[in-house]
Amino acid sequence: MSNVIAFPVASFSGAADLTMSSLEIAELTGKRHDNVMVDAHKMLTELYGAGGLLKFQDTYRHAQNGQTYNCFRLPKRECLVLVSGYSVTLRAAIVDRWAELEAKAAGPALPNFADPIAAAEAFIVAERGRREATAQAEAERTLRITAQAETEALKPVAAVGALAVSHTHALSQLGRFLPGL
Questions:
Q1: pLDDT tens digits, one per residue of 8-56
Q2: What is the maximum alpha-carbon separation in the chain?
Q3: Phi/psi at 81 (nearest 5 deg)?
């Protein structure tokens, strides 16, 4: 199902708003999206009343036909409540995916600086990144300088070309007044 979605199915701009879309739940559980939507609608209505649906509603654009369809974006609690009625295997797939989302949202773990090997490896990785960034910046600087030099070198050629066009135009105007030329 993920190949028909024109936006990321899970969002994680921060741990506070980590969500999973009903599309991803359908994909992970092997259920049809419309059935997941019915289950989610029923669950959210029971938990929050009809007015509670609005804070979970979202839309997505279908990549093939460009139409917009409804979906839900559920935080972890509501997602787990929804799938608790599904089979153990399906619940496990959702729990595993939540672990992935939370790990990704948490970002990389800091190395254990009390361990000399881990500290050395972290230093090497940081130093490589610094050197690569420096090399990239130097390459971009060299490219800019080269482009500026080439532009400066071409200015006289452009001026001659502009002058030639100007003179050609003037000669063609003169030719209109001198018969036989």
A1: 444 444 445 789 999 999 998 899 999 999 999 999 998 898 888 889 9
A2: 99
A3: -65, -45
Laid out side by side, the sheet with 19-21 consists of 10-11, 19-21, 68-75, 57-61
User: d(Cα 109, Cα 103) in Å, to the nearest integer?
Assistant: 9
pTM (2 decimals)?
0.48
Contacts of 5 (CB under 8 A, 6+ apart): 23, 60, 62, 63
* Continuous segment of H or E residues that includes residue 59: strand 57-61
Nearest to 85 by CA among 9, 175, 25: 25
**Nearest to residue 79, comparing CAs of 99, 61, 49, 59?**
99
Closest by CA to 2, choosing from 133, 125, 102, 97, is 97
**74 C-beta neighbours (distance < 10 Å), count:** 24
The answer to whether 40 and 21 have CB atoms below 8 angstroms apart is no
Give per-residue pLDDT as tens, 66-97: 999 999 999 988 888 888 877 778 778 888 88
